[in-house]
Specification:
Strand content: 15-25%
Helix content: 40-55%
Oligomer: single chain
Distance between the termini: 48 Å
Structural class: alpha+beta
Number of helices: 18
Length: 452
Amino acid sequence: MKGGFWAAAALLVAASTAAAQDSVRLRSGKVLSGVVTIDAFDADGFTIQLWDTGGTAYVRWTQVAASERRRLCPPEEPDRGDFIDGVRVVTSSREVVGVPAGETDQVLRVKTAGGPSPVAIPKAAILLRRSEKVREGDAYSPAERVARREKEAATPEQWIEVGRFACGLRLYARAREIFARAAEGGDAHRGEASELARRCEALIREADAEAALAAILSLQRETKYDTAIEAAERWLGTFADTELCRRRGGLVSALRDERAEFQRNRARVLAVRVPEVWRSVRHTLWSKYADRKYTFREACTAVEKLDAELVAEVTRRIGATPEEISRFWSMRDARPIAAGMGSGTWIHLGGQSGGFDHDSGEKRDEHRYRLGRPLQTQEDWWSDADVSQRRRWLQALYALTSSMVKRTAEEDRECPHCRAAGTLTATRLNRTVEVVCPRCHRTKKEKSVTFW
């Protein structure tokens, strides 16, 4: 636990850098090879000592693709804690991991990290229920994990360990309270606990400075330089006592220089920024509308209006005009995306929605029902599909209907279930009957599209 505290402290109080031999591919296609040094407090870019010349080059993050940045700076794996006894429950629409929190004949309750109240799962919907070891962080939030340890602590020494654990989860205010309690518990640990509480004060200040700086950098990314500069000047005065502020003492001058460069080279900067932000926002919106909280019709309506939403959001983030956004997006480089409608192709092609897969023509409803099986409706497919299927479907619909994309390929493959027959042969009530293919709903195809 001590390691967690000092790792958290080092992250904010010390200059955090990482160096490695690597090759970096720029957006222009040029490759730089050398020793890459990344400063955690430098949000603008990094340095690379070139192998060929021995010189040092400064590379802005805007000069590399988002995927290259993720490769160079992989996200830190959160501390999810040790393994505890838990349960994994799978239904047709979700997977729940946590610890059992009681059950009745109809409902199983599982405590997860998503909130203090257990998730209620109807037993009739459960496809898989398996007892297994799960991470503590899968069942409890960071604050709950600290509270669990607080209940077991009874001595100043144990409270200090809990406080260190809270620091490792960046819960500095909570840690300060715990250290203060330990300081009141006796003379033996008063000095140590008081010193740790004082250090928490510094960490809280650093965390506040970090959050305020993030807001300034967000304004910078949106090219709202005047507002960013005013905020940076206030930030330098407010957090002058922090290590982060001392490391970023040249923030205002850097913003002014970037503003001047933006004004001189507005077209060149927008040519890079607009496609970058557009793709990021578009990906976010695809994922947003693929969520099951949106009905099928709501998601389709959102895709119909997606271009207008994209223009408005990118305009807000960058600070350019809608006309500039559209113009520079049309000048983007080609980065093809492949999307497919899969088992939902029939919806786009007008296949049968609902009803039965066979109609004998008999008047008796019981025979008609027993010979035919219900087919999915559009909403049924949307509800049964997982989030990745829904997202790919929306991507394909967008690619087929948007005027802001360039389609390079559109392919109709035969349905793998009926081999493009549209129907299948089935035995029902000792009869051989022809039924509608439950995958393609008579459309015989599965559609995919490549676009950029």
